[in-house]
Structure prediction request, 320 residues.
Amino acid sequence: MLGGSYYVNSVIHPDLTSKADYLLPSLAMGYLLTKQTFWIIPLLAVVPFAFQSYLGLSWEHTLGIGTDNLLFCFIGMWASLVANAYDQKNKLAAEVEQQNKLLTHYTAEIEKMTLLEERNRMSKELHDTLGHSFISLILSLDASIALMDNKPAEAKERLIRLRALAEQNLDDMRNIVHEMGEEEETSLVRQVEALAARFREHTGVALTLSLPGTERSIRFEVRQTILRVIQESCTNALKHGKASQLHLELGFSENHLQLSVRNNGKPIGKLNDGFGLTAMKHRVERLGGSLRLSSGEGTPAITEVRCEIPLKGAMPHGEN
Prediction:
């Protein structure tokens, strides 16, 4: 309003146009122009002609006043665009800096969570692998001690086998720590058979197997999870249930891998999730599967661990 009033006043008093400052209102109006005040631009050109006849101005003088003010209005608009662009640049720079700080913070949090997850995974691996092996070692050592006086030769033979088992445990631990051969394509059935053979040899407990004739090619994580569930189930059957017979059944459906480990040990009165069972559940649930433990009275009493894991994109073993 102030700029417009001064502009109209300069038209009514043409002597003011001899000074350059009469163009400053047009410059300011152009700089402060918005979509709502865009109607000012045609008025800058029309006002001099509205007062032409009243003031007796020539066409050249009137056209000069209108043109000068329009030109300075456009210069003001250009200056406003430059200023806005510079302001936007500063805002974007501040936003990028803020985003970089947030990204750095999130990266640190993700790294911390990754380390924690890896630490938990390593603790589960050590518990599931070495815990199972140490149970076998303890049982075999107890048997060797009992045979030491009466059957030293048999005790010596058992100790030799125990030494081989200890070496195997050391290799297992190295594989876990260094994650050796993690992506190798290995037959799950052969691994289960080898695991069962070692279990029978070092514990003396009967373990029967029911394995599929046609195997499916599965991911490393699924294969490792199945092996850990078998180890933990067998270990718990001996340690807590004092079982003398175990039966392991492994099968493939169209979309799932199913595992069942049953034993004739003492029934579990109250199902408490210890570290081993909790680790098993976390492993299975992380792959989208389920794990159930059931135990009941009967003749004979049966305790069963049943596991089911979905197979995503699995193909028959050996097929492309």
Notes: The CA atoms of residues 69 and 265 lie 101 Å apart.
